[in-house]
Amino acid sequence: MKLLMMISIWFISSNHPISMILILIFSTLLMNFYIYIQLKSTWFPLMVTLLILGGMLAIFLYITSLTPNKKFHMIKIPILLSTMVLMIKTKTNLFMNFQQNQVFNMFTNSPTTLIIIMMIYLLVTLIAIMMMIKAAMAPMKSSN
């Protein structure tokens, strides 16, 4: 769980769409690993992976096509050091003790509600992106 917190801090501090996409993919895979260990089922993490990465990568593709070309800079050292201190200070391993965690109970109580909410969100996002593309009847990025 601490590794997931560290990745979230990196995501907030990144300023380039490519680094955001890479961090998003890694955090999604890590979150799905936690869900798999907790539920002992592969179907729910697979659906979460497809939904989150499918929807969010479409949004990031659109954002990336609109942003100007910038140089890709690596993560700054102070942010990296502060996240490492967060992990070292508590003397626990990177993967949490799953018996004491209450966060994953939301997945076991009613997973259907969560899945329906994610599906509706991604459907609305897909429709919004398609409307933006159809309105212009042109590529997403202008050639100016």
Automatic annotation (TrEMBL):
Its EC number is 7.1.1.2. It is an enzyme of class 7 (translocase). Coiled coil: none annotated. Keywords: Electron transport, Membrane, Mitochondrion, NAD, Respiratory chain, Translocase, Transmembrane, Transmembrane helix, Transport. It is a multi-pass membrane protein. The chain crosses the membrane at residues 43-63, 112-133. One of its GO terms (cellular component) is mitochondrial membrane. It catalyses: a ubiquinone + NADH + 5 H(+)(in) = a ubiquinol + NAD(+) + 4 H(+)(out). GO terms for molecular function: NADH dehydrogenase (ubiquinone) activity. It is found in: Mitochondrion membrane. PANTHER family: NADH UBIQUINONE OXIDOREDUCTASE SUBUNIT ND6 (PTHR11435), NADH-UBIQUINONE OXIDOREDUCTASE CHAIN 6 (PTHR11435:SF1). Belongs to the complex I subunit 6 family. This is NADH-ubiquinone oxidoreductase chain 6.
